[in-house]
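Hi support team,

I've been running sequence recovery on a batch of backbones for a student project. Most finish fine, but this one hangs at about 90% for roughly twenty minutes before it completes. I'm not sure whether the input is malformed or the queue is just slow. I've pasted the structure tokens below so you can try to reproduce it. Let me know if you need the job ID as well.

Thanks,
M.K.
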């Protein structure tokens, strides 16, 4: 395969040829759209750093869910912005909590759309950590019960899948057991398995009001320098009963997505996080980048690295051109 016998440009000369040999094709089935639910009625608070995204009251969130479904997006991932916080994050597992209400309403209005719920405590705790706090420490084992309780209350509200994002050890097993004991053995778990302690979450924390009030998340989220550890984290979640494993963030961790894809045979999700979205939107607003093209290139890269599913704030923007094709 040497020049001049082989000329790679031969197969690049027309769009027809390029399409024929294209190795990676995005499709709308790949996308999961994150949404932020907040109390009240007719609320649509813009998230400054995430153009096109809002904290939505349930009525408006249902409307957005309808639009996502109409575009062919198979699933949404719900986050809650509660009106009260306390040390144990009790609003996370309240029967009439914000995610529970949003879940019920979306399932009523658009039953074919899958509702996945983010299971964590950080939006609901007054200290902003993903577990309960003992002094300055995050108490792993004491947090498990609260996390499992949250997952169960989401399932009771009608969630189709739960997605624990807390990074406590053993939470997948605890959730699986709790769901099974309560007749929810059919509910899958999408585990945030290799979730890094990343500064790319900044815009999300402003949107969800979930920044830690002291310290940081380094004692539970992964060190960005580690990839072998990601394999260990994923194997634990697989053993504990995860149905989908996730790598998060996506762009700075494409190698981790690739490794996880090679090592495991479960579906792999990648979370194209808030900071990755904001960077592209900001550069687009400055006139420095062609936003729509960079969006497609980025999503294609995440899929090419091995992600079967992409959780992305671009879901609607990317679904539109794909639908027209
Ligand atoms: C909460 C949670 C976070 C994200 C998803 N779930 C933030 C965090 O861990 O601090 C980040 C999502 C994003 O940045 O888009 N555990
Ligand atoms: Zn959290």
């Amino acid at each position: 395969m040497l020049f001049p016998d082989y000329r790679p440009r031969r197969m690049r000369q027309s769009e027809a040829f390029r399409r024929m040999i294209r190795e990676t094709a995005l499709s709308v089935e790949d996308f999961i759209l994150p949404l932020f639910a907040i109390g009240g009625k007719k609320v649509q608070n813009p998230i400054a750093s995430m153009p096109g995204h809002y904290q939505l009251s349930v009525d408006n969130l249902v409307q957005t869910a309808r639009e996502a479904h109409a575009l062919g997006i198979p699933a949404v991932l719900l986050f809650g912005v509660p009106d009260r916080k306390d040390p144990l994050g009790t609003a996370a597992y309240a029967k009439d909590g914000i995610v529970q209400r949003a879940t019920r309403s979306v399932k009523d209005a658009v039953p074919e759309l899958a509702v996945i719920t983010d299971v964590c405590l950080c939006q609901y705790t007054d200290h902003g950590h993903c577990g309960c706090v003992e002094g300055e420490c995050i108490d792993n084992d004491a947090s498990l019960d609260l996390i499992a309780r949250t997952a169960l209350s989401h399932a009771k509200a009608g969630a189709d899948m739960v997605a624990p994002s807390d990074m406590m050890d053993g939470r997948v097993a605890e959730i699986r057991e709790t769901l099974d004991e309560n007749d929810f053995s059919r509910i899958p778990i999408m585990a945030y398995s290799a979730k890094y302690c990343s500064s790319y979450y900044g815009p999300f924390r402003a949107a969800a009001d979930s920044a830690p009030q002291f310290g940081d998340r380094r004692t539970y989220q992964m060190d960005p320098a580690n990839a072998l550890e990601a394999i260990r984290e994923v194997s634990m979640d697989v053993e504990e009963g995860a149905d989908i494993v996730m790598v998060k963030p996506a762009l700075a961790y494409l190698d981790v997505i690739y490794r996880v894809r090679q090592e495991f045979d479960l579906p792999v999700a990648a979370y194209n996080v808030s900071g990755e979205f904001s960077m592209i939107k900001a550069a687009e607003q400055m006139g420095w980048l062609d936003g729509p093209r960079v969006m497609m290139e980025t999503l294609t890269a995440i899929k090419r690295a091995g992600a079967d599913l992409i959780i992305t704030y671009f879901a609607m923007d990317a679904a539109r051109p794909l639908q027209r094709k």
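--
Follow-up from support: It reproduced on our side and the slowdown came from queue contention, not your input. The chain has a mean pLDDT of 97. No action needed from you.
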